[in-house]
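Good day; I would like, with your permission, to put a structural problem before you. What I wish to show you is a protein chain and, alongside it, a tokenised description of its three-dimensional fold. Here, with my thanks, is the record as I have it:
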Amino acid sequence: MTDTGARTRPAATGRAARDLLAEAAALLGRARAVREDHTRAVDAVRAVLDPLLSSLVDRELTAIPVSRLKDVTEGRLRLTALEQAGFATVGQVHGTARHELRLIPGVGAHTADQALAAAGQIADAVRETVSVRIDVDAPDDPATALVVALHRLVEAGPDARRAVEAARRLAERLDPLTAAAAPAGSRLRMLFTGKESRTRALDAVAALRAALAEAAEQELPLLFGQVSVDLLRAPESAPGAWVDFELRSAEYYSLLAELSGGGPDRDAAEGFLPAGIADRVRALRLDDSRLRVSLRGYQSFGARFALAQKRVVIGDEMGLGKTVQAIAALAHLAARGESHFLVVCPASVLINWSREIRSRSTLRALPVHGAERLDAFAEWLAGGGVALTTFDALRTLPDDVASTVAPAMLVVDEAHFVKNPATRRSRAVASWAERADHVLFLTGTPMENRVEEFRSLVRQLRPDLADAVSTTHGAAGSQAFRRAVAPAYLRRNQVDVLAELPALVHVDEWEEFSAGDLEAYREAVASGQFMRMRRAAYTVPATSAKLERLRELVDEARDNGLKVVVFSYFREVLATVGEALGPEALGPVSGSVPAARRQELVDTFSAVDGHAVLLSQIQAGGTGLNMQAASVVILCEPQIKPTLEHQAVARAHRMGQVRTVQVHRLLAADSVDQRMVDLLTRKDRLFDAYARRSDLAEAAPDAVDVSDADIARRIVEEEQLRLARPE
């Protein structure tokens, strides 16, 4: 033992130790630098944000009567002198200096201090409730400065937060080790060091070497360097920052809520869960190392709820990001070493799941459906990843693999599809649910209105809880129901988390052509008719993938009492949609309908209490009409003129709209839709940003849009060539 120790010591002292200490110092320097760079970026945002928040607080305080100061001091503050001096609101007191208050007859030092302290307490409480709203249609100087300052942090992305946290942990670990290992850098110093100190130094050198090896394995030097580069970039131009804000406003608002300390009421954002369950969920640290997106607070809580409670239903209202919460839970488990995951969903959203997983995480998405599903399933069994399959395809997969592979998490989207336990799809889901350690059902349908459906769903997750739930719980109201089913159910409404949401949420709904869609589309391409290609997805209503997704969106909006406007360029498409939706669909508003009748349709739509659907040609409904009663907009196809879409959405998303507006654009993969999106995305975005804000663009879309004929000709030619190639 002694000989072995003697042989290893020289390598742990002198030059080798100095090199190790130098490496540690360099890494610590990078860690400190990235934290300092991040602090500067955050301070730049706060420098703009704090005055905006103070202005909002002051505005709120001007509406609070001065008598409330007495409530804060439990009646101890005498207000007579202040009121006689003309102080009517808390804002007036809060904005007055102490020495000025003391100049008022009857107001001494004690009263002035009490009044200012009470006003300060109210201001602090108000500050927790206010939130900055960024209006893209009124970009004043303070808002522009804020968007530009936020851009640097948004551009750095989730890696910035990850780097800062890793740098903090690294410093806590390496600082004491480098201090303890310092004597080992000099053999002469080690000769005159006591045995105990020498042993400590050698142990510290060994621990330091292990820590540096671990940091290298985690690629921390690369992470710190890249994030510092991102944080030190020159500020984005104002137009560029505004364009970026419109493209990913959710990430800006997420950062804004985090930095302002504002946001929704915590109890509401956590679904009014009992304290014990909420505390357990909060205690779970979400590993986001395999995510490519920043989560909002309520989304992080939802992912942790799924992980902590293991077998649950997340029933958030549509538009709140249930998919990204599920992906965050999958990514956490993958970061902890799990390899196999299974997502079951309707065919209409399978492509969206694939795109979302790839864009928002580093997880491998593997579609398991269609003619090659068994081969894809075998590939998943062998290599892992996130298998994506449909309810119908799930029934055809071999069910004897439990002894080989059990998914670490089963996610079932649109879980109300399996509410009837007697159906084959429900039995297939139940079979897989028995094998999975974690099971997450997603549905936008409020379960408190459908207690029997909830019982059926939860019986697959928590049979004991299902038996304990009765119709009385639903009749007692949403909060009473949620408390009763809290171990397995989380729901948040838009109003619960509105402070963290952008006012406008865009969702591209990618669909895969059905066999009937594809045949109609191929015929349209062969004929070279661009407009026919654009509406081919609705040619066979019985099997139309777009129409199926549209119905699902309308159904979910109905369940949540939301109004929907459906836009299309084509009257034939609106007629098909109208037949599919039946009597509930009003309209269509079209160019052939007199102006007075159009307004009458909009008024009828707005007057309906709760859910309603209005159909409109995008050219007719895009100008002049106010559809702000709607909070869901569905675009049946992409438009050649981006300004046409913008104007149509603006009919619903405008001043006076009190709910978040969700815009769902229905797109068919590998089609004219994809070619249009690709072509229009390649346009100069900065020019488009300037043009869209001009009066000219609002009055004359043709002034800034590319030529219809050019786009049509290019797309027809590209599609004819693509479909002519052998598969």
